Task: structure prediction
Amino acid sequence: MRVVSVEEALVPGDLQAVFDRLQARRWELAKTGPKERLARLEKLKALLLERREELADALHEDFRKPPAEVEATEILPVLLELAHVQKHLKAWMKPRKVGAPLLLAGTKSEVHPEPKGVVLILAPWNYPFHLLVSPLVAAVAAGNAVLCKPSEKTPGTARFLTQLLRDVFPQDEVALVEGGAEVGEALLRLPFDHFFFTGGPRVGRRVMEAAARHLAGVTLELGGKSPVIVDASADVDAAAERIVWGKFLNAGQTCIAPDHVWVHASKEEALLSGMKAALERFYGKTEEARRATPDFCRMVDDGAYKRVCRLLDESVAEGARVVAGGGVHAETRYIAPTVLADVTPETAVMDEEIFGPLLPVLRFESLDEVVTQVRAEGKPLAMYVFSHEEATVERLLKETSAGGTVVNNVVLHNVNPHLPFGGVGQSGLGAYHGEAGFKAFSHERAVVRQGRTSFTNLFFPPYRGKAQRLARLASKLFE
Result:
């Protein structure tokens, strides 16, 4: 008879039933091989390709996400992840032979990856398909039973995901539940074997507390103020275009979006001019054209809209200069792609992660001040360096810390399944994508096989005479 804790007793019956079904199935899933797991993922891929237009419609309903961005930022990353898993899963699942010291002569040592069990994936709203399905692919590849919760802020995409996953997976292998914060809190009371969360630090701490209570694994993908550094040697035209693209993708609602730009004083005006020109090429030359373009999405809800408008108003009141953009429209939750100059570390827009279409530009004379400020802001999820001076790049890599770094471009590390993707410190804990994702949802089990010959008996008690001398001799070998 299983003893039910007080905490579990607070879980609604329907959620408990979903969890119990997954838990009852988890040992059967643990025994599956690569062929069975890949067959499930292949079905997921086939239905995704068949329903990609429905997904685009759902994301447009939620916050007017352009179809091209759906393809590039929601579908493509998942297809890349699926292709990488398909190619490498068989090798990842094989037990890995490792060496052993001379004292263990007669043994064979191996590392066996095994699924963690029943895992929870709590997904965010900004990339509501990609950031739920990519970790799901890793969890299924590792042989787990999975419970997913999409964000309530994107109901159209949540409905799409509900139907898609029901058509791919049996409910005792992968389940999805919808709901708001109260559902999320109830899920955190359940004894999952691993918690995977993408979102903000405040909720991330709650997830980590839950994982600690259950002595479970945890992966946190958070965020932070990801800086861009443009030094005096940079190709300013290329930098301006790439920064504008990465920043205003998804209306700036991207955890690895360039949050702000540090530019050397000698390149400031050229960079600002290049950014304004790039913005006009991408979204239109006038405010009316930019508001009408189908290529720029909207803030996800009224709360997000009001928060970013407040940052804009306060920053301008404190002396920030609008180089481009600045327009807003409450009814459609539109905030124009906006570049701000004459910003200092004390300006309101620098107080928090922006997560919206405002791009502050700060000038610097010495790289020392940039290093000092980047360190003061904590460890961001990403850092972007535009420089053709290798010494500058190496200095920034050694004297700062970030989840990932791209040199002379932005956000590209997120779509390479060969690279681990994750934060550090306040920007996250753990990583996924590719093999890193498989390992995040696996336990590496140490296995030692004793052969017919064993020297262990030489160390058996009583500890005197030959046994004592051998123990001392063995220690001396490694002094």
In short: Residues 67-93 form the longest helix (27 residues).
